[in-house]
Protein 1
Amino acid sequence: MRNKFLFLPVCIFIAACVVLCAAGCDKTELFGSNTEEETKTGAKEGGGKQTPDSPATPGTSGTPVTVSTIWYVAEDGSDSNEGDSTGLPLATVNAALGKIRALYLGGKWPAGASAEIVVRGTITGTATTNNWAMVNVSGKGNYPPVILRSDPAKPGILDANRKAGAEGPVMYIAANKVTLEDDIVLTGGFSLWGGGVRIGTYGGEPGGEFVMAGGVIADNKSGAGGGVYLQSGEGATFTMTGGKIEKNGDAGTENGGGIFIDGGVKAVMTGGEIIGNNSALQGGGVYIAPDGEFTMSGGLIVANASAEGGGVSINKYGATFKNEGGTVSGNSPDEASVTK
């Protein structure tokens, strides 16, 4: 008799379940669903997170997450901060790049989105932060396109502080794309090649891509390319649509006080100014090496000085200068010349 009374409620419960399911009830309502944490981590079968067996593709989204594409660096910041808000800025651009790289390679970066780094105030290089280049954007596939710009409330300045003689540019770019915008300033670099910005190759990979839509590259020194050095290598490009490259180079800069364009590199200038740069031998403003190519359709190259080719120096062994517009004037001792 006791077993009959126990059996009856069980039968009623099972019957009720059958009726509910027949009416369209989701089985998870009866037997439970993955917890929120399990859904995020993919702990149960069908979870959204990519596992080591199915790695995320750089630059694509795995599990939907909220990711900031704007990062903040300030003179009063700390690299222990999150860096994704104006109230918690980082202290160095390389720290911001580290966070961006981790998200990008982890498959959490929004597809097709660029990364913006906003700099507020003066960021001064030290023995630790310089580590060859104060800002290093290299390694194929490591980053989305990077935009480096200034905070309108307090203009950003990246000062590599190379006066002590340490070697290295303010920024090094290889196998990635970087754009300068607004009024950000890159200064204080000293290097054998490219005191302000060096665009190079990385382990045999294609060269970097540098776009100067704004900003100022000023008061940098080097043996070649005081402001910008475009290293020989397939794919290295430079496009200048705005901003200024000014007062770079000195008696220790042999060629290219403003820009040195190495062989196999294409540089285009549609706007902006290359002004007041100096070199000892050739190309106070711009030096074009054999097989290098420079096309100018806008902008200004003025008040630069060198022993030869004060404005633009075109090496006679295959360098190309296409002057399709813009202004080259007031350079010493001449505007443009073909040199050895």
Protein 2
Amino acid sequence: MVKVEKDLKVIPNSLQDADCKHNLIIILAAGNGEAINDKIYKGIKNNTNSDGFGDVQQALKDLYRNKCAYCESPEFNPQIEHYRPKKGLMTKNSALKWKKVETHKGYYWLCYDWSNLVPSCASCNGIGRGKDVKFPLLNESKRIFKPTVDNNAIALNEIEKPYLLHPEIDEPKNFFRFDDKGNIFGTDTAGRGEMTIEICWLRANETLRFNRKDQVFDYYTDALIAALNLSDVVAKQGLIKKIIEKLYRDLHNPEKSFRLYRWYFYTHFKEFLAISLLPQPEIDFILGIYEEVYEENSEAK
């Protein structure tokens, strides 16, 4: 997960046209989500493009660069995920088991709200191991059961204080860390990072863990180790610098997957290098070049 800036004033047509407004009136009058039309929030009722994507789905694909909002895996046909569940919800009971909140009908009034929609892969949003309708709060007494004056995710997050991180509101860098195996861990004392990991199945998903490790830790460390085999010191130094510079470019490239892990790898480079089993002289050689690149990029900001 990385922070994404969404302009809440630039809304897909499907979420503000006459059909949407009329349907929302029906939903609000009923006080539940039974009348929610998925063709509206997917944007496929009247605004499908030549690729078969509705305007909402296409806008989210463009904003998130064809990646899942939660795990950052490539996703070219994302599900339109409701950050706050639109029909019913689940939270954790005193025994730390997921349970349905029988008295809550879901945040049906946010079904077409642009701030409540993010793109997700089937794994992160799946029933059972994935998010589904899980939406626990730090304090359940703060939960909102009906429409409020400020009907958007930002305003409601200030009131409810949900566990689940929102990539357009929260800064993920403040909540996660990684290890050399591609595992992700929560770091905040409130437990929002760990709960987000559990809700979206970000650590237990072995395929996801492998892909993170393969595309980040293995990719850069293997390249560095290969560079060390060059006999020419100048050539060796030049190649290692290019690899570290590429890491820096990649973590800032919105087209890349797993940018949060790339950022963590770059900012904790010394720690990761220490567990690479390289001889200390070679570690020191690489670190000297890394510090040069780090300083150059810091000065360029």
Protein 3
Amino acid sequence: MSAQENVQSDMLRVYMPRDISISETVITLGQVAIIRAEKQEMVDKAESLQLGQFSSVGQKIVIDRAMVKSRMACEDIDILKLEITGAEETVVTQKHIFIESAKLVEVADAALKNAAKPASVSRWTPIRMPRDFAINSSSKNVDFQTSIVKSNVPSCAKVKIDIFVDDKKVESKTVTFRYQFNCRRAVAISTIAAGSAISADNVKIEKYDSTQPERADWKSPYGLIAQRKIPANAVIHNGMVANKISEVLIKRNDNVVVKIETPGMTISAVGRALEDGREGQCVKVRMNISASSQRVIFVRVKSDGTLEPIL
């Protein structure tokens, strides 16, 4: 802006554009208008006049000729020697960097892809993300730094994004994702009658995605017994099946043989069962040691119907 060019020594000339975008928060006349005067001190004084400031992103501030004259009068600048040309008013906006929500999700997704996750995670979906926002700056040097934030919900992950402009941290945002887990479930191929055994003939194991991780103790129901009728295509849960109940091998008041087997030696004795017993169960037996001595012991039922004492 030259301070000379056919300018009378005592005149101050101001040219106002229709609109202009600036980087600063505080608006001065020198930022939004072209000022000419023969004396540089007049130009400097006029350029430093403050005309307002931005209070929010995207705000537009209108500067008109009356405002310029009023501010000059307050600073003891002779407005009779002021000439304003150009637009009647100037619309001033602030330069800013606009960051879309989709960009933050993309940055967070890349960070989560390289982070440690539960082994059964198959994919993840953003469920909470920041809105689009703007930063008051005209710089193109924008950088993102990410970190994984501990989540109290096992099925969720949080990624914190720190935003830097010209190596200065200006904002932090967080994106929350929900995990999808690889899980298995047992599904009835056909209707299963109560009491029927579960097998690959009537139940299939299929994989599916779930928002909750698979139980650590999950196992297929093959070999179990249906507790009730199970319709075709029904997902089988624990309460619908149970272990197969073995048959009663000894009955109450049966005469039974109690054996102690060691390498190279077998000792056996006869007793009377005091209760029914199935394979693997522990029951009471009264041992007939003598007519005057009958002792009750605990024994375990073996698959061949014999018993072994619990020592």
